[in-house]
Design a protein that fits this description.
This protein has 250 residues and is α/β, with parallel strands linked by helices. It folds into two domains: 101 residues, no CATH class; 131 residues, OB fold (Dihydrolipoamide Acetyltransferase, E2P) (Beta Barrel), CATH 2.40.50. The protein is built from seven helices and six strands. It has a five-stranded mixed barrel. The longest helix is centred in the first third of the chain and has 23 residues. It starts with a helix and ends in a 9-residue tail after the last strand. Keywords: Membrane, Transmembrane, Transmembrane helix. It holds the Pfam family DUF1980_C. This is Repeat protein (TIGR03943 family). InterPro entries: DUF1980, DUF1980_C, UPF0703_membrane_permease.
């Protein structure tokens, strides 16, 4: 428990936790890890503390004959056997997530996860379209652009240039598409937002390569083969390879 709590605490005070949960959950992770460590320390203290003095009880027990006629040594031996116990060995499985966090921390969800799940944009949801941020190009998210392009038909985008950041993943026709994972709570519920690219399409890039794309609205649409939902496009004017952001999710 100490190792497990320490591993969670280490991930929480660094940016490692952002691979698994949303940013706002950091205080809860820190509190939970400290609680685990405190519980483990208290358990160790309880197990390793000196045995309480039982001289009076032992003396009284020595003076009384055993009820079944056996001598005192046998009676005391039975008592010792009666109170002996063993912790469940399954508790040692807690070492596995510790090793995972400390030695081989799983990466953030990427192109493989995006290829296994359908796009998160569905017509059954409601979306808001506030004015785009100031500046040229307007920096926005893959989710925001995709929702405006798909359900607002680009009216809230107009002729403005936008700048998006995401990772490369193979599209249904083998061409690269831009994607970004979104979370409701943690990586377990992560879903991809997929965006097709027209114009100056990046080529020769491996999956999971992060790029920054600058472009304009395109009315072209594709289909996600996983859930048959529509995938909007962006008309790429320029792009550049970038490092993965600290928080890989939207």
């Amino acid at each position: 428990m100490i190792l497990f709590g320490g591993a969670v605490l280490r991930a929480s005070v660094t940016d490692l936790y952002l691979r698994y949960v949303k940013e706002g959950l950091r205080p809860f992770l820190i509190a939970a890890s400290l609680l685990l460590i405190a519980a483990a320390v208290m358990t160790l203290w309880y197990e390793l503390r000196p045995a309480p003095a039982t001289a009076a009880n032992t003396s009284a027990q020595r003076d009384l004959p055993a009820a079944d006629g056996r001598d005192d040594a046998d009676s005391m031996g039975d008592s010792g056997d009666h109170h002996a116990h063993h912790e469940p060995r399954v508790a040692w499985l807690l070492i596995l997530p510790v090793l995972g966090l400390l030695l081989v921390a799983p990466p953030a969800l990427g192109s493989y996860a995006a290829g296994q799940a359908g796009t998160a944009l569905t017509a059954q949801q409601d979306y808001d379209y506030p004015p785009l941020p100031a500046g040229d190009p307007a920096k926005t998210t893959v989710f925001d652009y995709a929702a405006r392009a798909l359900f607002d038909k680009g009216q809230s985008i107009g002729d403005r240039r936008v700048q998006l950041t995401g990772f490369i993943t193979p599209g249904p026709d083998g061409q690269p598409i831009l994607a970004r994972m979104i979370l409701s709570c943690c990586a377990a519920d992560g879903r991809p937002v997929k965006l097709g690219m027209a114009g100056d399409v990046p080529t020769g890039l491996a999956s999971d390569t992060w790029i920054q794309v600058t472009g304009r609205y395109s009315d072209r649409l594709g289909r996600d083969p996983v859930n048959d939902e529509e995938i909007p496009y962006i008309d790429v004017e320029s792009w550049q390879q970038v490092t993965a952001p600290t928080d890989p999710y939207e």
